[in-house]
Amino acid sequence: MTFPDLDSLQQEIHTLVELDADTPESTDGDYTIRTTLANKWIRHWEGEDGMLWNELWKTGSFTSTGATSYLLSSQSITDLRRPGGYVYDDLNNLWSVLRKEDIALMKNSDSYYCYFTGDEHVGFTLYFGDYYPATGRTIYIPYFKKATTLTTGSTKPEMSDPYYIVYGVASDLKSSEDPGESDKFFQLAQKSLRDMKIRNLQVPPYMNNQIADRHAMIGKGGFGV
């Protein structure tokens, strides 16, 4: 299965659980219940311990007004879950993202840096240090987004193996009626999750996964936030 939409997932789930092709319509209660369960499994995937999913990495952009701070929700960036380690503009100027507690160390520094406040629930604000993009420049913010919530039949999840959702929901639906069958589906869901984690951490052949870390120049390492 390759990036199915919610309707396709509903068909797969119904076939596994009911062993027939009479999939509920979107107005049926069973469709609503299964959609709710599907989104539960998406949240489990999104929040898997220690994982930053490649499928959730994206870049947002907006036009600079010459300000030193921006409320991102006002710039139509509302799905940010965790910022990346840098921000850049269309002139290829690069700002390192620092932790808020490290900003005091940057006084009288000639470095390009920025930081974020807030969280995924209340929203984020981006702050620049002494250097900031000029008016009219395009600001680019790479970040990990929130996973898509399935709402309509055409909505698609991001995960590389959506059978994780299918097996997970099937496990939930069978939990009272047939615990043994429920456990079988649960184990299949966990296998799908393990396989996705392996693929997420794999580096393609001949790809150099080492990049220069600008934080190292000031004694800091890794991504900020």
Care to describe what's here?
Mean pLDDT is 91; it is low at 214-225. A hairpin with a 4-residue loop joins β4 and β5 (94-97). The protein has 2 domains: 6-51 and 148-201; 54-146, no CATH class. 29% of the residues lie in helices and 19% in strands. It starts with 5 loop residues before the first helix and ends in a 24-residue tail after the last helix. The chain contains 4 helices and 8 strands; from the N terminus they run ααββββββββαα. The protein is α+β, with helices and mostly antiparallel strands and 225 residues long.
- What about the largest sheet? 8 strands, mixed
Q: Point out poorly predicted stretches.
A: 214-225
Distance between the termini: 36 Å
Rg of Cα set: 22 Å
- How confident overall, as mean pLDDT? 91
The count of helical stretches stands at 4
Q: Give the oligomer, counting copies of the same chain as homo and different chains as hetero.
A: single chain
What's the count of strands?
Answer: 8
Helix-strand topology string: HHEEEEEEEEHH
